[in-house]
């Protein structure tokens, strides 16, 4: 069945195109810095925002008009899969991501849920082959159901821990079945509502136990894909354990998970934690932990997760620069964890919204690549830190100095000149790349 | 010389006292939970806020009226020391803290600064003996001088690194000379103004090198006091490396500093990072890294460091509960990194401000101790997590389960009942302790 | 039908009561400053949080266990009314508030909705008589339905304006029928998602037209109750027109609505706007516009509306002081626009949560009354502003001075002494009232 | 005397120029939409940031290298005036702004300050003629000196009110003498540190009295320039009375000041109040109160005033669109209330920083003009609100409807279709204008 008969394949038509249903910056097979844009960007569509979101918010019910509702839940579920692959195909996007609950009905028992998942993943597997699409990552939704009100791996109730373990085992099985490139953990309820009634130590220990079980199981079945933690500071919980990249890395290292766990960095979550997107990417990158990204945008005046489609070309250019410096994201990619505004009610908006996000990243890739080709930022850094390339600086970096030797040096070199950084000039020069 | 002839010793007069120059809650030698209040709280006064602050802010010059200005810088410096110990004595506070630049003029060369420090620490040492006062910690100010505009250990200029090393060597020497209980690092400029021109990896590596030099030197001279990092997220820098407790711990562990480095947690800094004070204390405590605290308060509507004297008895009670659970802070303590409002211009306010902070902590200690005696929170936790004391929960905690075994369990236990946490009731019951 | 057979009437048992189902501070008929606590506080329960909320949040479905679901929507609707008055009665609370959609099913047409409202308000009217309860205010929900996605009175679609007008006419009719004391407007969607596509001028003009129609109609039917605007800065919209008290007052005065419109001030909304609750109350009070309050609490680290039950006795004491200075709220009152945490799943929590809020306000009333009896704050103000009671200050206040006369004065009085405010001392003395 | 001998006049060299000391977008005499860029933008330099700032911040002393320090204060003051006009001239900027204290030493008495102002304004008047430069606005600094610790017009001390009146009289005299286009009030300390000790009503009444005196005096001397209030929400005060545009307008209208008072809107202050810059401009514009703007940028993660030079071309384009819709700012203009980063220590940065800001506005003007020429946003609005152009919508706007008539209409038109806003598409199309 097809659902978007009025939409044709979205093609690259160049900057000056007036056709809303075209790419103005994304030319999938164009080569930039030795790789095609497709390979650089590895775009993915999110099943939840694309297929199951309805435009509801805490103060309003759904608004989106969709034509894939069937007579039964099962029929709706299948129609969604049809529509999703039609979109992927027409958008020329190679990857997708989903939660278990996005693709299958949970039924009345865990067994029933598993059966539904089996049926739907058979269907999806066929479609992946038919359309030549790949699974960037899947995950288990362990935050929507009431049982998870106090967390999953960090629940105070051991039965909930067990239930979550079952969901994740199934998720890893599905990852193997669909040949997923990564497996993601977003700990939506792993955190606390109030510190007062929280056994913080036990909860974090349990979360680590949970992750080690996941490692053990994936090793056992021979599906050693990267596991990705997605940091978020707050909402729905008052405080979430994976607050930001640094906090998640602290946890990963403390519990010796670093060989298998990397990070899935999200723009909106960075903002909520008081950081820029590029900061979180840098922290992950410098710790060899930049796994994948969730692309979206937050208006910084707002204190909750809005998951807007990205459009800020200045900051996305800095983000793309981090990705280039990371030598790309592969096996990770760029997943649009972005939802249409509640007022974008038309099915067309699914296409228009994703085009806006894709072109924002494509334009930013072009800008970042040019910055790199010009060595614009590299030259600034080289000059700025040159004192560490020789003399006392080199000796410090090589570990040859001590407080005593440096005191001797400082007593003789205590009149220090400070060079200007000219930051105002640098920032506006970056703007010049955003053409 | 004395400077507060109108002020008598501040004494405990009980709750109903109408005398502003009395303690209404702090009774130093009263025993609570087996320790004197004095031992529990280990209060310290900060030399900078008490002696050198002048009431200036970014939009205004100094307002405080002080009578210790002499005819020369040296005379003023000495008068300050006299006045400071007079205050410590009249307040009945046992400890103090200072930056190097608080106590001595920096002169025109590093050598001159060192000479001035030697002279002033001789004087302070004598006063410590005379008044029976102790040094909680000292530190080096590596953020005020222009040379530190780009950081100290994380400066792009190796000569600045060397200068900072010399200051810290001297600081550790002073700590030994004055028998300090801890040594603190607040990395005021260790961070970035813009990520664009920052070599994040090199800067953090250098910061670690710096700290290892400090460890090596203190080992060498046989003065192995705890080194404390004080987290702060931003201001003056756009982003500071020691963003919060979790981030600082991530750094400490990554660079293998955990044996000697702990945290000095500040209330206002917690707020600026989007946390509660008790959260930061919990994170530190659960990682065996709660070293000491900087006591102050932030109005949460404000986005900069206001260092208000603490008065929020609800949150300070939760903070004191963390401290009791930590079995106290010793060898750390509670340092009032708190400054008078710009409008509190009178010398009397030095006393009134500190009394307000001390009584806030003393009242909160009384409340927290009662909560502990009643096992009020302990009982809540015991009941809430009881599923991990036996059965499947116990088996999880003991490491005996796997995703497969838990899947089997979950398939048989998939109807889970969620008990209420009754949080509203718990919170208002805590209020009942704040009498 | 009764729904809480295990709950007895909640009675005042005094501070030391260990019975969770008792008031420890609220003694309804106890007289304070010449009025009963009941008259001072005029507590109301909110139909929506109490009866229709289910514990869902943006990331999770409902969690609350409720026993009033019937076989049909109509039966459920009626059961809710039964349960609600049982709660009001057992809590000994005199007032209640509701949205139209809380009490009646919207059916498939506007006429059907009106018919359902007629039927349910007949039932509610009988119950009000039976239980001796009063309607503090009702309102129309003009934000949940998809038609309101772009606002109600400020929608870009005139048909939506008309629909909203019909809902408000019915709301005012219901207010008259049930003898309501006030009528409230919370403009949930009156604002913009993006300024780019917004005709700001037309939308605000339309909102004013809408309010004038409401005035005209209420005049016509002889039901001239106060109309109350409830400010909120953001969420669900990016920016809401009634941002805060000052903004709403600006609108009210610009459009000449001040004779009939006052404000309903909410604690959580104050926080989201960057203000304290007491600030918003002061702004309203000083403009003769303090109509009523929505009582709840926001953890200030969180950037969305959490509607927590109030427990912060320091700030609620300052709020109650504003209310005392306003000579009370009558015909307004204190409505608990407060919801149980998602983890407070038990029906008992309905009682425990409201007891916590009621006792917080009762305890704070006691503290504020004592502050007033002692003239504690009044004396501070009198002394602080005494320069305006005589001399040049009096002459300024009386409008007798000009820039020229004051220049003459200033040239002769240019050495000005600044007295300390002693704020640290004042704040901790307020704490002393919170016993 | 000249101070920038190595800097030549800054000229427009077009987008592709690699010369840092050139304009790439600002071509002063180029005509856009019928006006020269010079007339559109009316750029001004701020005396304070340009001449008196030293790079200090709350945690650090000054860092800027400047060559205009003389042997005496008077000589330095005069050198600054020389240097300032050299910069204005080399930058080809037509306007400037200053505080009284920026240009003259305050001496030891008010009379001495006035004498110094007379001398310096004689000098400046000559220079204005010599260089053909104009005064956009001047203002009185009533926040730095200790006397203003509790405010100026809102001080609790009537002598301070008088002193402030004298400063403002002198400021208006200077405005007349130098033929200023506007006169500005930024109420740096007009607000409260704590609501507890504040007589809010008296303080606001006094502020209004103060402004009426200013109107009366300017009328009397025949210098009826616009008076501009500059909103800012907080810092240095906990809460400032001119919180944002809406709050300032509420005050202006309440006290009947609207005929002479407009607003000076600042970008950074908008952010601190939780608004976008374009929002504040819209509020001012729709109330016929957009007087002038202070151009700068805030990184939205930061909670204090950073006054960064603007570089965000997306938001400045929206700001310029508001200015075009306002038919320009004349007699207001665009003043760079922007300071160099503390690390931009070189005198060259004065030029580089201002070039970055000027080119950002120039590029944004080009983008906004193109949006306007294409009617891009106008068409969106026309279509979106078309329901108010005829039928029931027209009738509503014309004031012909009532709740009753609309109820009748709604009962017959209760099935309402909601059109998509396609916001994602609109936003990314705006990006396409930023070339």
From TrEMBL, chains A, B, C, D:
The cross-references to Gene3D superfamilies, in alphabetical order and at most eight, read: Divalent-metal-dependent TIM barrel enzymes
Residues of the active site are 99, 102
Localization (cell): Cytoplasm
- Domain Xylose isomerase-like TIM barrel span(s) in chain numbering: 114-286
Q: Supply the alphabetized keyword list.
A: Carbohydrate metabolism, Cytoplasm, Isomerase, Magnesium, Metal-binding, Xylose metabolism
GO terms assigned for molecular function: xylose isomerase activity
Q: What EC numbers are recorded for this enzyme? A: 5.3.1.5
Q: What cofactors does this protein use? A: Mg(2+)
Which of the seven top EC classes does this enzyme belong to? isomerase
- Provide the catalytic activity annotation: alpha-D-xylose = alpha-D-xylulofuranose
Q: Which domain of life is it from?
A: Bacteria
Query: By its UniProt entry, which Pfam families does this protein fall under?
Result: AP_endonuc_2
Q: How is the cofactor bound?
A: Binds 2 magnesium ions per subunit.
Membrane-spanning intervals of the chain: none
Cleavable signal peptide: none
Q: Which HAMAP family match?
A: Xylose_isom_A
The subunit field of the Swiss-Prot or TrEMBL record says: Homotetramer.
> What family is reported?
Belongs to the xylose isomerase family.
Record-given protein name? Xylose isomerase
Q: Which organism is it from?
A: Anaerococcus faecalis
Q: Which gene encodes it?
A: xylA
């Amino acid at each position: 069945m097809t659902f978007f008969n009025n939409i044709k394949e979205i093609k690259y038509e160049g900057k000056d195109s007036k056709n809303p249903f075209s790419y103005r910056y994304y030319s999938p097979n164009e080569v930039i810095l030795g790789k095609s844009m497709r390979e650089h960007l590895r775009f993915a569509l999110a099943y939840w925002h694309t297929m199951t979101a309805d435009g509801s918010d805490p103060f309003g019910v759904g608004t989106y008009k969709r034509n894939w509702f069937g007579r039964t839940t099962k029929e709706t579920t299948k129609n969604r899969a049809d529509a999703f692959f039609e979109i992927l195909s027409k958008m020329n996007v190679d990857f997708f991501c989903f939660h278990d609950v996005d693709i299958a009905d949970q039924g009345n028992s865990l067994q029933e849920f598993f059966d539904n998942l089996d049926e739907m993943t058979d269907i999806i597997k066929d479609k992946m082959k038919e359309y030549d699409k790949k699974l960037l990552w899947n995950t288990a939704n362990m935050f929507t159901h009431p049982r998870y009100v106090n967390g999953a791996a960090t629940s105070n109730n051991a039965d909930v821990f067990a239930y979550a373990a079952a969901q994740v085992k199934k998720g890893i099985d599905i990852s193997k079945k669909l040949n997923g490139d990564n497996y993601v953990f977003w700990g939506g309820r792993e955190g606390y509502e109030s510190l007062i009634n929280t056994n913080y130590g036990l909860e974090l220990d349990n979360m680590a136990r949970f992750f080690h079980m996941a490692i053990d199981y994936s090793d056992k079945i021979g599906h050693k894909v990267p596991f990705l933690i997605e940091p978020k500071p707050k909402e729905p919980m008052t405080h979430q354990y994976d607050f930001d990249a640094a906090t998640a890395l602290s946890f990963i290292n403390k519990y010796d998970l670093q060989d298998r766990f990397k990070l899935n960095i999200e723009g909106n979550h960075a903002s909520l934690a008081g950081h820029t997107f590029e900061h979180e990417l840098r922290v992950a990158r410098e710790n060899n932990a930049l796994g994948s990204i969730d692309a979206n945008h937050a208006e910084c005046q707002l204190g909750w997760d809005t998951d807007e489609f990205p459009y800020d070309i200045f900051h996305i250019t800095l983000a793309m620069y981090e990705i280039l410096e990371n030598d790309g994201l592969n096996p990770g990619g760029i997943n649009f964890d972005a939802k249409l505004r509640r007022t974008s009610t038309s099915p067309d908006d699914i296409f228009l919204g994703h085009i806006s996000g894709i072109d924002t990243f494509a334009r930013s890739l072009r800008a970042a690549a040019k910055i790199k080709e010009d060595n614009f930022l590299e030259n600034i850094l080289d000059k700025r830190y040159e004192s560490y390339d020789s003399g006392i600086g080199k000796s410090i970096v090589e570990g040859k100095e001590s407080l005593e030797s440096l005191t001797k040096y400082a007593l003789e070199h205590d009149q220090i000149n400070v060079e200007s950084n000219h930051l105002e000039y640098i920032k506006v020069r970056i703007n010049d790349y955003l053409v």
